[in-house]
Specification:
By secondary structure, the protein is of the alpha/beta class. It contains 16 helices and 13 strands. 47% of the residues lie in helices and 14% in strands. The chain binds uridine-diphosphate-N-acetylglucosamine (UD1).
């Protein structure tokens, strides 16, 4: 019987990790049967559907329709529904990616159902237990039979936790597979058009030049769930940063909701130089990153993309599970937290950030092929 591989996606950062893997399975192991499960943690077209179309991901075979909720609600609903899928299909492997609630929920369910588990993007550690993603990462890695890691730092984290060396496969960063496959198509896009077409509030002509704008994203609970923190950041963005250059801000639904609840939304969208857009598709976001003077973000994926593109990245966090992207490791990212004084000072020096494109070993666009080869070897 051919192996049946069940692959799981749930939230936006999963889609660019699963796309190259599905393409590589189809090309290198065509006799493997694939079953794509979408938990539905992210469900809007802008957060989900657009990525399927653009990245050529086949329609999901199973939709769990889990939707929003607290961590326990999302994880609980996912486990109940995923258990039924596993009992009906009995796959050979379950493959989970990243660190979102869907990753952890399906990892636990797979092991409870005695299905072999593979984790792509294993070994990342922020050592910050206040982040839901850290809990998800540690639980998933503890359970996985195959741990596919992006770099040597991740290997070392796993070894320190006692993970047997034969379960760890260093394969590189699968996000970079997607970046490389979309890079040229992205470069052909016009940043002004991207932004003009997706603004949440209409305004006059948008004129952006390469290296002439800042790109901003934030969605982490630590930055957007507390009104005072959010108000201070908005004050800096609207009153100071946008005076230096236009700020393009693709807004995350969590952030928009919290800005509205804190009475800050009108101030943000009413600011002439702050260009708030709907969540963008992958290629548009890549194009904006290619042309940005600086990127301010709390997203792990953007940190990695900035590293490979050579965009100075001010990471609005106090720690990172991706230290390889930091300037200290030859990358482009500086940790600046969410304290405005610290961000202001870093922004002043951002021009001087020594940022050449930096490509850690195996971040070469071939990671998915290495993963599929490992499955084929394992039989
Ligand atoms: C999740 C992940 C985070 C990842 C991020 C990327 C966890 C714990 N967090 O955070 O690691 O970096 O996705 O986006 O898994 N919403 C919509 N439309 C959608 C999806 C969500 O409006 O399509 C709203 C939800 O109703 C909710 C909020 O956005 O109120 C947050 O969604 P949620 O999935 O809880 O977490 P994220 O902050 O997106």
């Amino acid at each position: 019987m051919n192996p049946l591989i069940t692959l799981v996606v749930g939230a936006r950062p999963n889609f660019m990790k699963i796309a190259p893997l599905m393409h590589a399975f189809a090309a290198r192991a065509p006799d493997y049967e694939l079953c794509l499960v979408h938990t539905g943690q992210h469900y809007d077209d802008a957060m989900s559907g657009a990525f399927f179309t653009q990245l050529g991901i086949p329609a999901a075979d199973v939709h769990l329709g889990v939707g929003s909720g607290t961590h326990a609600e999302q994880v609980g609903r996912t486990m109940i529904k995923f258990e039924k899928v596993l009992r009906a299909r009995r796959p050979t492997w379950v493959v989970v990616v990243g660190d979102v609630n869907a990753t952890c929920a399906c990892a636990i369910t797979a092991k409870q159902e005695q299905v072999r588990l593979a984790h792509v993007e294993a070994g990342l550690r922020s050592f910050d237990w206040s982040m839901p993603e850290e809990v998800n990462r540690v639980v998933t890695d503890r359970l996985a039979d195959f741990l596919f890691t992006p770099d040597a730092i991740a290997d070392a984290n796993l070894e320190k936790e006692g993970v047997a060396a034969d379960r760890i496969h260093r394969v590189g960063n699968i996000m970079i597979d997607t970046l490389e496959s979309q890079r040229e198509a992205a470069a052909a896009l016009d940043p002004s058009r991207i932004v003009a077409d997706s603004l949440v509030a209409p305004r006059g002509k948008v004129e952006l030049t390469d290296k002439g704008y800042a790109l901003l994203t934030m969605h982490r609970p630590g930055n957007v769930d507390t009104a005072e923190v959010l108000a201070a950041l908005v004050g800096y963005i609207v009153d100071e940063l946008s005076g230096e250059c236009p700020v393009v801000w693709p807004i995350h639904p969590r952030t928009q909701k919290n800005l509205e609840a804190a009475g800050l939304w009108e101030r943000v969208v009413g600011s002439a130089q702050v260009l708030v857009t709907r969540p963008l598709d992958y290629r548009s976001m890549l194009r904006l990153n290619q042309g940005a003077r600086v990127c301010l973000t709390d997203s792990g994926g953007l940190q990695e993309e900035c590293c490979v593109l050579g965009t100075p990245c001010l990471t609005m966090r106090d720690n990172t599970e991706r230290p390889i992207t930091l300037v200290a490791h030859g990358g482009c990212s500086l940790l600046v937290g969410n304290d405005v004084g610290r961000i202001r000072a870093a922004m002043r020096d951002a021009g001087a950030l020594s940022c050449t494109t930096s490509r850690p070993p195996l971040w070469d666009g071939q990671t998915a092929n290495r993963i599929v080869d490992a499955f084929v070897e394992a039989g």
